[in-house]
Amino acid sequence: MARQVARRHQRERIAGIVVVCLGLAVLAVAIVALREPNGHTAGSASEASNVAQQSQSPSNTETTHPVDPGSESSGSSSPPAGDPKSVPLIVLNNSVVAGLAKQAAEQFENGGWTVTHYDNLQNTIISTCAYFDPADPTAKAAAKALQRQFPGIVRVEPKFPELPSGPVVVVLTGEYSPT
Known about the structure:
Blueprint: H1 2-35, H2 45-56, E1 89-93, H3 100-110, E2 115-120, E3 129-132, H4 139-149, E4 155-158, E5 168-172
Parallel strand pairs: 1-2, 1-5, 3-4
Antiparallel strand pairs: 3-5
């Protein structure tokens, strides 16, 4: 009789451990899902508006960079219609590397692209990505062409709401290295 009671207690302990382990696994999945739904970081509405405002206003370490059509660094005329390089870019630095957006913007311009703005962004982006506006029929092709030309752009994805408006927004992370 004592053995049966001991086995019963052992089975109950094992069942309890299994339930706790399953609970921890579900908790871990829920935390990951809440942090990165569809690959994007979730945040409060106020955080989202702060990010949008920050990416649209000058920051302390990098300044906005409006492009003057007469000051193209390549010295060439504007690309023909239908050319992916005719789609304007916004470049955002989402790293601790000071001046990364400016360096990348210059690199893109030297490659024939038009950068209308660069700035900093505070978000949790997993890797350098060219985000395109799915409502713009030329944006996805432009983002993919940019990625082919600059392989440091790891991903091409549809934009998420916290990004500034524009057909293509390039968000740089710490592993991006302008060459």
